[in-house]
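job 3f2a | input accepted
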Amino acid sequence: MNPDQRALMDGDLDTREEHLYRLLDRVKEGGDASALEALRALVGDYPHYHRSLYTRAMNHAAVFVDASLAEPLLAALADTRYNCQAWAAMGCAELRLPAAVPGLVALLDRGDWMGQEQAVVALGRIGDESAVPALVPALWSEPEWLRERAAEALAAIGGDEALTALWEAFEHRGFTRIGYVASALSKFAPDIIPRLLAAADDDDPDLRYWAAVALGSTGDPSVVPTLERLMAQDKGQTVFDGWVSVAAKKALRTQRRIQDAIAARSAQDTEPDGGDDAPQA
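job 3f2a | predicted structure (281 res):
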């Protein structure tokens, strides 16, 4: 056991927590080998460390988690006695562990809000389509943040089943404000654009409003004429006192920002790299 590992086990808790943060800083600054070994030992042998240290370390999982920790992360994900499942989910998300999917799905049903949130986030990052049926009910649940995370996860996973679930939540709204669904649907562009354009002509002003939001978020140039028409001509008002024309105006700004960002990235990619063949001053 190296001295850094020992420092996480000995002394009062405040001192150990301070040492933990120093270890994280050392890894961030230069990949300190001793610090990495201590942090990975904490996760690998988690039952022997204070929960506070585990949770604080896992809040920075991206700094030190690697494939060697897959087995202990799966164990912690199932360990209700240690009760750090939400933080184990963070590590599983970082590794994108398909083997974690059953444990993450089980975590959705525990009623622990943090565990639910991290499970949804992890399922989205892992991207296993088998998790879609477990995520769908969250689109229709309370609180709103859980619906938002579920929509983001379904968009990240992709596939026909995820798209069907999101479109169902879009067409048959269980809640008045569904910007998170509109945003998630935009990730399915360009395939989703014809359906959104059709929704922009629907009799329901609420559907037209959210269709405009989703169309703008696609960033696709082909949606501009429809958004311009809605902005200029649509006098529809939603059940939450929103105006379709205003949504279209904002959506046009969003579309232009996306296009500007794409153009900027493209220009950056084509700039000379400053190598041997670059012009000399």
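job 3f2a | The two ends are 55 Å apart (CA to CA).
job 3f2a | closed
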